[in-house]
Amino acid sequence: MMGIADAILCCPVCKGPLNDSDAYLACPDCAVVYARLSGMWDLIPAGSSALKLSEREHYTEKVDYYRSMHATWCGSPFYRHYHAAFLEDLRELPQGSLILETGCGLGHDGLELLRDGYRVVETDISPGSLAEARRLHAEEGYSHASAHLLVDAENLPFASGSCDGAFTVASLHHLPDPLTALREIRRVLRPGGVFALGTEPNSWQNYTIYPLGKLLLGAFKRIAGKPIVVEEMVSEADKLTEGFSRLQLAGLLREAGFERVILKPAGYLSAALFFLSTELSQLLGRDLRTFPLEKAAIPLDEALGRLPLLSRYPWHWNAVAC
Ligand SMILES: [Zn+2]
To answer: How far is the CA of 3 from the centre of ligand 1 (A)?
Structure first.
């Protein structure tokens, strides 16, 4: 049976056509052969940077941890509201549209689109995460409408103009070269195609919350004599990222070739409550989450996002571009 991505595949490097057999895909121009890994095409070009390899390994090794974390995140009103918000931008596309996700992780956002009747091409650099996404989509009965490919978001193996929509969630800041990835997404979108960006971190936290958090964790460790398990669960790219200011993110999207760019503040108080209560719950081994408070904060957050100065300093960014 033909997979939904087969017709749009191309060489991730030269973008030329691939010769296919059951066992491999080959680029005659690059003289390179791509094979399957655990039944999924591995179209990642050779020579990935150390950071990319480290992300690949982290999200494969820790897949059980992220599965259990997602089970706690997905009940959060903050999480639900701002995920629904960027998915809403993609739902403007007609049902059956082909939507690409880069950095799909465990595939939960893709599942929402599959349920709405879209065809979803899921890509990730981590075989562990991608296999989990494939398992989830098969379990829910969407194998026919989804494809799962190992891909480096900076080298997309899809023909230009081949996708109706694309999205990436909390993933852009994991890439060494986000501009290249955005250019690739722009390239594979058809004219008028929609790109949605979900929950990318703003930059101000790196100068405020995170250093303070580290300090407090250190103090906590000394007082409680407990090992800090939180830090070990953070990927290399998450440690290195500085997030994106409004100017940086809008600039990247425009430089990548998007003409219409709308940045949307995603959370203030609801985000702070979500992250602080999640971290504290983990540290203390007790559920200290505050979902009713989080929920009550969302209308306030929406209002804060419309104020001129505060609109630059949400916790996260959502964006839509075309
Ligand atoms: Zn090639």
So the answer is: 21
Compute the distance between CA of residue 286 and CA of residue 280 in angstroms, rounded to an integer.
Answer: 8
| Cα 25 to ligand 1 centroid, rounded to whole Å | 11
- 192 Rama class: left (phi>0) / alpha (psi -120 to 50) / beta: left
SS3 315: coil
Cα angle 95-180-41, degrees, rounded to a multiple of 5: 60
Determine the distance from the C-alpha atom of residue 238 to the mean position of all C-alpha atoms in its chain, rounded to a whole number: 12
Quick one: which H or E segment has residue 263? strand 261-266
What's the CA dihedral at 91, 175, 14, 126 to 10 degrees?
-80
How close is the Cα of 17 to the center of ligand 1, in Å?
8
Whole-number Å distance, alpha carbon 45 to ligand 1 midpoint, is: 10
* Predicted TM-score (pTM) of this structure: 0.91
Q: Quote the ligand 1 centre to 42 CA distance (angstroms).
A: 14
Report CA(162)–ligand 1 centroid distance (Å). Answer: 18
Distance CA 318, CA 262 (A): 9
Consecutive sets of 10 residues in the chain, 322 residues long: mean pLDDT of each?
A: 86 96 93 96 94 90 90 89 95 97 97 98 97 98 98 98 97 94 98 96 79 73 65 75 91 97 95 88 82 94 94 95 96
> How far is ligand 1, taken at its centre, from the CA of residue 8, in Å?
14
User: Crossing angle for the helix pair 63-73 and 269-284, nearest 10 degrees?
Assistant: 130
pLDDT at 248: 95
What is the 31 CA–ligand 1 centroid distance (Å)?
7
Q: Are 302 and 295 in contact (CB under 8 A)?
A: no
CA of 173 to the centre of ligand 1 (A): 27
